[in-house]
Structure formats: structure tokens, C-alpha cells
Write a structure and sequence with these properties.
There is one protein chain. The protein is of the alpha+beta class. It is built from ten helices and four strands; from the N terminus they run ααααααβαβαββαα. It has a four-stranded mixed beta sheet, with helices on both faces. Strand 3 and strand 4 form a beta hairpin. The longest helix is centred in the middle third of the chain and has 15 residues.
Length: 253
């Protein structure tokens, strides 16, 4: 999905009135099947990006389906985010939701650590990894993940499997919280800060703030990035076959 839509401040503000589900396309067979029911390309197959607005029942469509918000709502070049913001505002007025919803949202993680790291790399974000930590620490991280200074600015993951940690290049030691910088291709990570698994909320908060202030998102040119990955023999194995005709066969690896 084009990040320009979701980096617009007004779109970010209005999106907080919605449950935003980011499904996995080719990284989860069940989610891929759901997306295929919502939108198929001209060849009848699942394409790499899908966008649709659904009512609270999770079934009724409030917009057309397409690859992007622009396909659903239209908008001339330069005005796409404005149109999306207006549509979000109109829908939010019809479905205002609860004033004070109870409960704490879950930690916004991907299916596993491998995928969480790759998503963080694609989004050019740091990754916070909870490695074999206690439930009480997980509650602290859930609270921090949804606080204004950190909400939407970090990738998150948790694991109880030390082999997952080793696979992305981090040291296999005792339980800990890592603030990681994803590698260029989202296959390995570098630890910027390691915190005790029993670190206080104040300590975690301070470490996250410092990391965000000092980190600079890497600039990526898609074509150069893909070309360099091919030269270095870097590849990514998806859970289901990539069927998007817009992705050349050589780039589906």
C-alpha cells in the first residue's frame, strides 16, 4: 500500500476512529483467501495490495474494493489523501463507535518474528522484540505500543522461541527486550538497545524515546533495492504463491 496515504496527518488522526486491519496477502493462506474474496485483479488472482472499507459487522462493504484507497474513492493526483480523509470522516460520522471502549488493544504484531522483522524493514521502522518475557511485561509493552509518542512509529514482535531470535542474527541469551534495526533486506536485525525482561515502564519508555530520536529511516529506491537484492542472492519465501501479474517472476523471490 502506498505509504503516502497513511503518512498524511489528517488520515492518521481519523484512522484512530477505525479498526485498521493489515492483512498479510501472500504471508498467510487464510488471510490470502479472505482478501481474494474482497478483490481480484483482471486475471482473477490475488494481487499484492487490497483496500476496502467494511461496516462493523465485518461483511457489509462501505466502499468499492481495489488495490488502493484511490481505486475505492477516486481523487486526482495530489488530492488522494484529502479525499481519503473526507471519506473516513463521513464513515466515522455514520458509525461513531463507543465513547470509552474498555480493554487494552493487543500488541500489533505479525504472524511470527521473521515476518515482523520484514514488515518493519519494509516500513522503515525499528522493531521492538519481546523475547521470552513475562505476561506482566507484555501488558506494559501493549500499553506503550498504543501511547501517542510510539503509536504507529514502531514495529512490534514477541516470541517464546529462542531459535527465532537466533535466525535473525540476535544473541540467544536470557529473556530480554530488544530495540532492533532491521537489516537492508529484512532478513537480519541489529540490536540497538537490550533491556532486561523485568525493565520498568519508565526504563522502556526512555529507551524507545532515545531510539526514535536517533534513528533515521533508510531511504529506498524500489528498483535499485530489488536489483541489489538479486545481485546479492537475497530471497524471501512467501507462505503462498505470489500471483500478482504486476510483480515480474524474478522479483517474486
Amino acid at each position: 500500500m502506498d505509504q503516502s496515504f497513511w503518512s498524511d496527518p489528517e488520515v492518521i488522526r481519523l484512522s484512530e476512529k477505525f479498526v485498521c486491519a493489515r492483512l498479510s496477502t501472500y504471508e498467510d493462506a487464510k488471510e490470502g483467501e479472505l482478501l481474494k474474496k474482497l478483490y481480484r485483479g483482471r486475471n482473477g488472482e490475488l494481487e499484492n495490495t487490497v483496500f476496502v472499507m467494511l461496516a462493523p459487522d465485518g461483511k457489509t462493504r462501505l466502499s468499492r474494493s481495489g488495490r488502493t484507497p484511490q481505486m475505492a474513492f477516486g481523487g486526482s493526483v495530489g488530492w488522494e489523501s484529502t479525499i481519503l480523509a473526507l471519506e473516513l470522516h463521513a464513515i466515522a460520522q455514520k458509525y461513531p463507535g463507543k465513547e470509552n471502549p474498555s480493554g487494552l488493544p493487543p500488541l500489533p504484531v505479525s504472524k511470527d518474528l521473521r515476518r515482523s522483522l520484514n514488515v518493519a524493514a519494509c516500513d522503515r521502522q525499528l522493531l521492538v522484540l519481546a523475547d521470552r518475557v513475562s505476561e506482566s511485561t507484555m501488558v506494559e509493552l501493549r500499553q506503550l505500543a498504543w501511547e501517542a509518542p510510539f503509536r504507529g512509529r514502531l514495529g512490534w514482535s514477541s516470541t517464546d522461541n529462542k531459535e527465532e531470535v537466533q535466525a535473525i542474527g540476535l544473541p540467544v541469551e536470557g529473556p530480554a527486550i530488544y530495540i532492533c534495526k532491521p537489516g537492508e533486506f529484512g532478513l537480519k536485525a541489529t540490536s540497538l538497545k537490550k533491556l532486561s525482561a523485568n525493565a520498568s515502564t519508565k526504563e522502556i519508555k526512555a529507551a524507545l524515546s532515545v531510539a526514535l530520536q536517533s534513528a533515521r529511516p533508510a531511504q529506498k529506491n524500489y528498483r535499485r533495492h530489488v536489483s541489489r537484492g538479486q545481485r546479492l542472492n537475497k530471497s524471501w519465501e512467501t507462505e503462498i504463491k505470489v500471483s500478482d501479474p504486476h510483480i515480474p517472476p524474478r522479483r517474486r523471490e
